[in-house]
Amino acid sequence: MLRFLQSQQKVRLVSARVLPCQAVELNFSKIPELNYNPMSSIFVNVPKISKLQWHPFTITSSSNLEPEKLSVVIKSEGSWSRKLYEELSLPSINHLQVSVEGPYGPATTHFHKYEKLVMFSGGSGITPFISIIRELVHMANDSDTTNRTPQILLVPAFKKTLDLGILDLILPVSGTNHDISHLKLKIQAYVTQENGLPSLGTENQPLFRTIWFKPSALDAPISAILRRNTWLWLGMIVVWSFVISLSSVSLVTRFYIYPIDHNTNMMYSYTVKSALNMLIICMSVATTVIIAFLWNKKRNSAEMRQIRVTDGPTPMTSPGTSPWYYNADRELESLPNKSFTGCIKVNCGERPDFKKILMEIEGSNIGVLVSGPKKMRQDVAAICSSGFSKSLQFESISFSW
Asked: Any idea which UniProt keywords this protein has (predicted)?
């Protein structure tokens, strides 16, 4: 019931990044109090495409690094996502109505307990790793956790060189005030179906676009269903639902059923009474939930209006200006004078040799995360369980909705 009420709200879509590899990043506004763990997900509905279809997507942002933004990456791999990409590719678009449900995710994460992290991904499987990297950027800049931030080796595999553009989404669209050089990150990207990077200046290259949407008074930042003190509110809903239903059943029985039936069960059988009691209980729960939801919505509407709204032009840049497009060993940069400690290396025309990569990693506690096709997960799991290194801790991330 609570999730249904949340899904009826229209949320504020701040910006979108449209990549030449037919992927888009949607950046929503959210309240700073809404926290979630990396690898969480949300359900997205775009009424202009379909009023009934809800699709789950992995959140790529970090609630610590970006307290007022929530981002998802959507790859055009179906009819719904293709229509969304085509809609955002229109030059005249300035607003898109969107509803979300969630976020849902793990209660805790333990990737920070490792000395080093090796993350293998295939295609769009890189999206949960983007959220992990952004979270670790925050940890690396926090004095309390900087010494516990693991070193990262990201090994993404793509079919075509255009898919490398997803690496541009590792950092937020608006940049970050954190010093990203504190995070020790290396990226070994693989392009399996092409033998070389396109040369700069190639004609008819698709454009890398960043769209800033106009704000609407009907849209609101994404917020928790019951905002602060969620567990307290849930407890109150349970208690008051019980009180209201018990009181209602007592009143109906005493002043409606008894004067007619006089406990003979001739007019109202046990089946009818049970059905009536169930109806009263459902109505009591629904009434309590709606009151709690509307109370929180009204109480916090003033605060939600104070969320900073960013609006700007729609810049368009060529993919040739993307960091990965210069050369295979260029340092990954997002802002002037700010760069990752590691560098990015692109290997074309080959697949990653999982065993060789893992054998080159030194350490006593190494986390191995895999997100991608079933075959990739099985191959890496077989290597980690073969016993050649006891320091490897395998974890699979699958998308089985």
From this structure: Membrane, Oxidoreductase, Transmembrane, Transmembrane helix
Q: Locate tokens 């499987």: which residue?
A: 125
Distance CA(353)–CA(370), nearest Å, equals 14
Alpha helical stretches, state H, 300-353:
301-305
Distances (CA, A) of 335 to 149, 164, 342, 370: 22, 19, 15, 29
Token pair for residue 375?
A: 């075959």
The band of 238, judged by pLDDT with boundaries at 50, 70 and 90, is: confident
Assign 68 to helix, strand or coil. coil
Coil, helix or strand for 122?
Answer: strand
Are the C-beta atoms of residues 106 and 36 closer than 8 Å to each other?
A: no
Residue 47: asked if its preceding bond is cis (omega within 30°), the reply is no
**How does pLDDT run across 328-338, given as a tens digit for each residue?**
333 333 333 34
How far, in Å, CA of 176 to CA of 346, rounded? 25
Burial code (b: 16+ CB inside 10 Å, e: under 16) for 311-320 equals: eeeeeeeebe
- Residue with the two structure tokens 């639902």: 241
State which amino acid sits at residue 56. Answer: P
The string of pLDDT tens digits covering residues 143-175 is: 888 788 899 999 999 999 889 889 888 888 766
Phi-psi region of 116 (alpha: psi -120 to 50; beta: other; left: phi over 0): beta
3-class DSSP assignment, residue 99 = strand
pTM of the model: 0.76
Q: Read off the tokens for 155.
A: 């090994």
Percent helix, percent strand, percent coil in the chain, to nearest 5? 35, 25, 40
